[in-house]
Design a protein that fits this description.
- The protein is α+β, with helices and mostly antiparallel strands and 700 residues long.
- The protein has two domains: 135 residues, Penicillin-binding protein 2a (Domain 2) (Alpha-Beta Complex), CATH 3.90.1310.10; 397 residues, Beta-lactamase, CATH 3.40.710.
- It has 23 helices and 24 strands.
- The strands form seven sheets. Strands 2, 3, 4, 5, 10, 18, 19 and 24 form an eight-stranded mixed β-sheet that branches. Strands 12-11-23-22-21 form a five-stranded antiparallel β-sheet, with helices on both faces.
- Strand 18 and strand 19 form a beta hairpin.
- Helix 14 crosses helix 17 and helix 16 packs across helix 19.
- The longest helix has 29 residues.
- It is elongated, with a radius of gyration of 43 Å.
- The N and C termini lie far apart (119 Å).
Length: 700
């Protein structure tokens, strides 16, 4: 029976295993080497015998490979990447905090301290220790509300790794109590901080000095590259802002170890902050105090005095005083009204106070940012252009009838007749007398002649805009370049100004042309001409010194905290105005007459408010009374007076303007007269600086 047949009959497995083999024997017998063999992959599980030796070999090999890999990896981490992971651990556990630097001092020309620092004990609380119960205890101790503490703790103004200020000026009693009961106030400590202090008082030159405050997001975006922190306190206005780079000092760096939750554990290292540099100004503090008081008092006087011409009480909305040294452009004093007190900003100004200052416009520096129609003070510019261009002889007389009628103008047409400010004319006047008595008619005529020369294509030195071009030489076509931020630009009316206004605002300025009447108005300081007090003061300083226009300078020098002179700012010449004797002398004669001649417009004010001898200290000057139109309604005029002296060798230029203050002789001239009276009795001393210094003609 075949083997298959036995299977078909179901022969038991044990019988099949003994079935004889019928294989043919071969000549060569192969002996197989004993050792582990792999089981038949097609065999049933029960057909495969147990092989524990194989399994042990496989499992053991896997473990050997695993331990070998772990050993290699551990060696790689500990040896090859040791430094990298050490730095990573340090970075993850250390936080860097900037330490604010005390700001440098600001001093006047004689080193009288104007701005310094004061030390305060500040109560601070760690965020990690802040709980509702602890906040309540701290509020009761500090005398503040819990809600104010909660707001401070949530503020992103402070570093998350530094305690948060709770009380700026901590009373001694609170400090002592905290020391005796420290365990009851976990996370509450006292730290020393500095704030701005104003030894002469915060009312002295606040616009000039400026204030400090927290850096804004916009400022930080610009200043971060210069190393400013997002928690920095920086200068926002005035000298504080312009010279912040020197005053701010060098911030310190503190490294703090924190745990996994970001809670500070200890201080790893601390690099102390460096005190800022000292900035010395050209300003004379006593003079500054005098002009500030004189301006404020005069504005109050003007408001209470009825204008005899209009019968109204002038509102005297604002004003400014500028005192320059015409020999170098030094700013000796600068006052603005309305004003404010810098102490309001110490420790942070309240929203209510800030809103009030904005509403009152008290933060505007009218000397630098205010612009006013100049009126007759602009006649200096027109006179210079007329004489330098030989438009008219200085001693050629013109009959001032009180009403200038434009030749060829249609009878009855608007803008054909220009009236003097006074009701009657001055009669025959030449250039000096026209300045002394402020003849509008004379300068109406100059404006007309200049325009006719242009219309008739007459050749003259300055082209189509001779008055504007001389104004540019005097610096009245833009900012002066003073070392203060946010300076406004003076603007002299011109064909280009009219064209640009029409292009930008066609509804407000439907006619972009320039006509005879426009040239006449511009020639005596009206129309669209608006000047800053500083710009006009600098123009008169240019004339006073013979034609050299300097850029006004507030700062004189910078010193290190140790007292070493780092920088001495030299005078900066911006331009030179052609000033031959044939031009300057007739104008100077007229300006001298304003103060010294009984017919001069400033004669009465100087003899009423100045007690010095004008023969030994002669002063020249010019009044200005400029028409003000608001929404087509005529308001009280802007009041100006600018003077310089002593005339033979000018040391001072003093300008005062009072917005809507009335006539220049009545409102502004008294302030200038009083200021010269003070200067004669208290001359400004020389700048106090060491002989050895580094000079630079540029600011920052």
């Amino acid at each position: 029976m075949s083997r298959a047949g036995w299977r078909q009959r179901g022969l038991p497995r044990e019988h099949r295993a003994r079935w004889p083999s019928f294989r043919r024997a071969t000549a060569t017998r192969i002996t197989e080497r004993k050792g582990p063999t792999l089981p038949n992959p097609l065999a049933a599980p029960e057909d495969v015998g147990s092989r524990p030796d194989v399994r042990l070999w496989v499992v053991g090999g896997v473990f050997v490979l695993l331990f070998a890999f772990m050993g290699v990896r551990l060696a790689f981490l500990q040896i090859v990447q040791h430094t990298q992971y050490l730095e990573a651990v340090a970075t993850n556990s250390e936080r860097t905090v900037t330490v604010p630097a005390p700001r440098g001092e600001i001093v006047d020309r004689s080193f009288k301290v104007l701005v310094a620092n004061t030390v305060h004990q500040e109560l601070v609380m760690a965020r990690a220790e802040a709980t509702p119960s602890s906040i309540g205890r701290v509020a009761a101790l500090a005398g503040v509300t819990p809600s104010s503490i909660e707001r401070a703790l949530k503020s992103n103004q402070y570093s998350p790794y530094e305690p948060v200020p709770i009380l700026t000026d901590t009373p001694t009693a609170v400090i002592v109590y905290l020391e005796e009961h420290a365990a009851a106030f976990p996370g509450l400590t006292v730290q020393t901080v500095t704030e701005r202090k104003y030894p002469p008082g915060g009312a002295l030159a606040p616009h000039l000095l400026g204030y400090v405050g927290p850096i804004t997001a916009t400022q930080y975006a610009t200043l971060a590259a210069k190393g400013y922190a997002n928690t920095a306190i920086i200068g926002q206005t005035g000298v504080e802002a312009y010279y912040d780079n020197y005053l701010r000092g060098i911030e310190g760096v503190k490294k703090i170890l924190v745990n996994a939750a970001g809670i500070p554990i200890t201080t790893v290292s601390n690099v102390n902050a460096t005190l800022g540099d000292t900035v010395q100004l050209n300003v004379d503090a006593p003079l500054q105090a005098f002009v500030t008081q004189a301006l404020a008092a005069d504005i109050q006087r003007v408001r209470g005095t009825k204008d005899p011409r209009s019968g109204k009480y002038p509102p005297a909305l604002n004003g400014a005083v500028v005192v320059l040294d015409p020999r170098n452009g030094h700013v000796l004093a600068m006052a603005s009204d309305p004003s404010f007190n810098l102490n309001e900003w110490v420790g942070g100004i309240s929203t209510a106070n800030y809103d009030q200052l904005v509403h009152s416009k008290a933060m505007i520096n009218n000397a630098v940012n205010g612009t006013f129609t100049p009126g007759s003070t602009f006649k200096l510019i027109t006179a210079t252009a007329a004489l330098d261009d030989h438009l008219i002889s200085p001693f050629q007389y013109v009959d001032d009838t009180g009403a200038f009628t434009v030749p060829g103008c249609l009878q009855g047409a608007s803008g054909c007749v220009f009236h003097d400010d006074e009701t009657s004319g001055l009669g025959e006047v030449d250039m000096p007398l026209a300045l002394t008595e402020s003849s509008d008619y004379y300068f109406y005529n100059l404006g007309y002649l200049f325009w006719q020369n242009h219309v008739n294509n007459s050749a003259y030195r300055y082209g189509a805009t001779p008055i504007q071009d001389i104004a540019t030489a005097y610096g009245l076509d833009g900012p002066t370049g003073i070392d203060l931020p946010y300076e406004s630009s003076s603007i002299v009316d011109s064909p280009l100004v009219h064209h640009n206004e029409h292009q930008q605002f066609p509804q407000d300025y439907p006619n972009g042309g320039w006509y005879t009447g426009d040239n006449i108005e511009m020639a005596f300081g009206q129309g669209g001409t608006t000047l800053t007090p500083l710009g006009l003061a600098n123009a008169y300083a240019t004339f006073a010194n013979g034609g050299t226009r300097y850029i006004p300078e507030v700062a004189a020098a910078v010193y290190s905290p140790a007292g070493k002179l780092l920088l001495r700012y030299g005078a900066r010449v911006a331009a030179r105005v052609p000033m031959p004797a044939s031009t300057r002398n007739p104008i100077l004669q007229g300006l001298l007459g304003v103060v010294n001649s009984p017919s001069g417009t400033g004669y009465g004010a100087f003899h009423a408010y100045a007690n010095f001898n004008l023969s030994s200290f002669p002063v020249a000057g010019k009044t200005g009374t400029a028409t003000v139109l608001v929404n087509g309604q005529k308001k009280e005029p802007n009041s100006w007076f600018v003077g310089f002296g002593p005339v033979s060798s000018p040391r001072y230029v003093v300008l005062c303007v009072i917005g809507q203050g009335g006539y220049g002789a009545d409102a502004a001239a008294p302030v200038v007269a009083q200021t010269f009276d003070y200067l004669v009795a208290h001359p400004v001393g020389s700048l106090v600086v060491p002989a050895q210094h580094t000079t630079t003609p540029h600011h920052q």
